[in-house]
Amino acid sequence: MTLRVLLVDDDALVRAGLRLMLDGASDIEIAGEAADGSEVLPLVEEHRPGVILMDIRMPTMDGLAATEVLRARDQSPEVIVLTTFHADAQVLRALRAGAAGFLLKDTPPAEILAAVRKVAAGEPVLSPAVTRQLIEHVTPAGQDSRRARAREALGRLGEREREVAVAVGSGSANAEIAATLYMSLPTVKTHVSRILTKLGLNNRVQIALLVHDAGLQEDAEAGES
């Protein structure tokens, strides 16, 4: 199946470079291009892309606002945020809004292609180490209240769902979670789906962020040491 990708960046040269890179892949089709976040929703409705490569900074509507609008809708495309900085508060907000990950604009072409394919398959493109670094560098004031809210939310999960959530926060794939927690793969997938539904989340990245906000990953690592 051909994967349709929408390119969103106010720099025409960046869009041209992405198009040149992605056009060389036989399984990827460029669904369209936009120079501003305000153009995204009409293009999504017209072309139905599966993945959007979204610049974070644009003049009229930035990538954060566009991501929030998209991910609030049912059956929205996956979003990969493009940025020039590792530790960026706007990137973290976009991830909290439902983006599946982020890429630096100087990421090698092969890694960008791999990221697009991973996101289309429902996998995040954000490692636990990068998640932690991002949160540590750009988490604003109010961290204690965020931790309390995260713990309250995760408290609504059953014991096994909570274990799966912590494993997702560590970056484990479903097969690894199944082996570690002695579950079948379908059971892990069912737990992940229930976690997303119970907590009103869009994807695994948001689960991981919630686990990190709650400090559960730190607790798990402390227990292992």
Strand order in the largest sheet: 2-1-3-4-5
Instruction: Indicate the proportion of strand residues.
Output: 5-15%
Q: Give the C-alpha Rg.
A: 18 Å
The total count of helices amounts to 12
Q: Would you report the number of β strands?
A: 5
Secondary-structure element pattern, one letter each:
EHEHEHEHEHHHHHHHH
What is the straight-line distance between the termini? 45 Å
Low-pLDDT stretches are none
Mean pLDDT: 85
Structural commentary:
There is one protein chain. The protein is built from twelve helices and five strands. It has helices at residues 12-23, 40-47, 63-71, 89-97, 109-120, 128-138, 143-154, 159-169, 174-181, 185-199, 204-214, 216-224, and strands at residues 3-8, 28-34, 51-55, 78-83, 101-104. It has a five-stranded parallel β-sheet, with helices on both faces. α6 packs across α11 (204-214), α8 (159-169) packs across α10 and α8 packs across α11 (204-214). It is globular. The model has no long low-confidence stretch (mean pLDDT 85).
Secondary structure blueprint with pairings:
Layout: E1 3-8, H1 12-23, E2 28-34, H2 40-47, E3 51-55, H3 63-71, E4 78-83, H4 89-97, E5 101-104, H5 109-120, H6 128-138, H7 143-154, H8 159-169, H9 174-181, H10 185-199, H11 204-214, H12 216-224
Parallel strand pairs: 1-2, 1-3, 3-4, 4-5
Helix pairs in contact: 3-4, 6-11, 7-11, 8-10, 8-11, 9-10
How would you briefly describe this protein structure?
Helix 3 links the parallel strand 3 (51-55) and strand 4. The chain is an alpha/beta fold.
